[in-house]
Amino acid sequence: MDNCLHGSITALVTPFTEDGVNFECLARLIEYQVSGGTDGIVVLGTTGEPCTVTEGEREAIIRFAVRETAGRMKVLIGAGSNDTKRAVSLARQAEELGADGILAVTPYYNKCTQAGLIRYYEAICGAVSLPVYAYSVPSRTGVKILPRTAEALMELPNFAGIKDAGGNMEETLETLKRTRGRCGVFSGEDALNLPILCAGGAGVVSALSNLVPHAVKNLVTAVETGILKEAIAISDVLLPLAKACFCEVNPIPVKAGLTMLGFPVGAPRSPLTPLEPEHAQLLRRELETFGLEVKA
After folding, report:
1. Nearest-CA neighbor of 31 among 50, 47, 12, 8?
2. Of 74, 121, 144, 163, which residue is the catalytic one?
3. Which of 145, 199, 246, 278 lies 20 to 30 Å from 173, alpha-carbon distance?
4. Angle of CA points 167, 266, 36, to nearest 5°
């Protein structure tokens, strides 16, 4: 479809207090992304812990994010489910509240077929006029979008692309080949941002860019402008920090890192746990090595 998103998109964390959502901190996080040159944010994607927010919190978070960004960057809302009717309802809510697009994870736990995936995304795309991006992350859902399925999905009028966190470069390359020229495949794994971009990816949906939005944006720009040597140099510097950000399940390390940088995002909600002390030391060291000021 026309007007597809591209570039550097941050999978934004949701900051919590013991009593609810920390909207003051959320405003700071949005400003940090704007100043870092980020092209868009995903709100209530996996990194935003959507499974642990209440219905009221969800609506309030979406309203706040749309208002605070004020058109300065795109706002995508995580709206997938293991129930197609629920996914449709979430997508409609996001459209009604002013989102710029939908990021819909594949159904989880049910483990549907590829035909089931197509029907799932047909239902979501048919319910809204917004661009719909699929999210393939089989390590969490048990289901992946195969290249031939991605090609079929591109026929839907408002299907805009795929966030690929499958970790299989052969399949990613095949998906890129089959969908080239019809909107984009986005890297969904920070360690693979460079190769996916160089193979024709439309951009990245990054957890790492919560911490270093400017550097992730510079990586994307370097590839887009054909300055491969610079892109490789940026990637080499980013990789150790990216590795530290996934020493435990996302978003545990990223939220710990933001706290170290002075953003009071709070701990992840249960059943996620705070970062283990030895991993906190590793992350702190990598933040300092990167040149960031660790405040906490």
Report:
1. 12
2. 163
3. 246
4. 60
* Long-range residue pairs from 185-189, CB within 8 A, at least 24 positions apart, any chain: 185/150, 185/161, 186/9, 186/133, 186/161, 186/162, 187/163, 188/135, 188/136, 188/137, 188/163, 188/164, 189/164, 189/165
CB 37 within 8 A of CB 10: no
Has 85 been annotated as catalytic?
Answer: no
Chain-centroid distance, C-alpha 37: 16
At 156, is the secondary structure helix, strand, or coil?
coil
Contact (CB, 8 A) for 149 and 118? yes
State the fold for domain 7-228. Answer: TIM Barrel (3.20.20)
Catalytic site residue from 32, 120, 121, 135: 135
Question: Are the C-beta atoms of 206 and 11 separated by less than 8 Å?
Answer: yes
Give 43-99 pLDDT, tens digit per residue.
Answer: 999 999 999 999 999 999 999 999 999 999 999 999 999 999 999 999 999 999 999
- Where are the domains positioned within the chain? 7-228
Rounded to an integer, what distance in angstroms lies between the CA atom of residue 123 and that of residue 110? 17
Which residue in the block uniquely carries the two structure tokens 């209440």? 54
pLDDT, tens digit (0-9, with 9 covering 90-100), for 85-108: 999 999 999 999 999 999 999 999
**Lowest-confidence segment of 35-39, 123-127, 179-183, 195-199 by average pLDDT:** 179-183
Beta bridge partners of 49: none
Active site residue 109: no
Count of positions (residues) in the chain: 296
184: β partners: 161
Neighbouring C-beta atoms of residue 57, cutoff 10 Å: 16
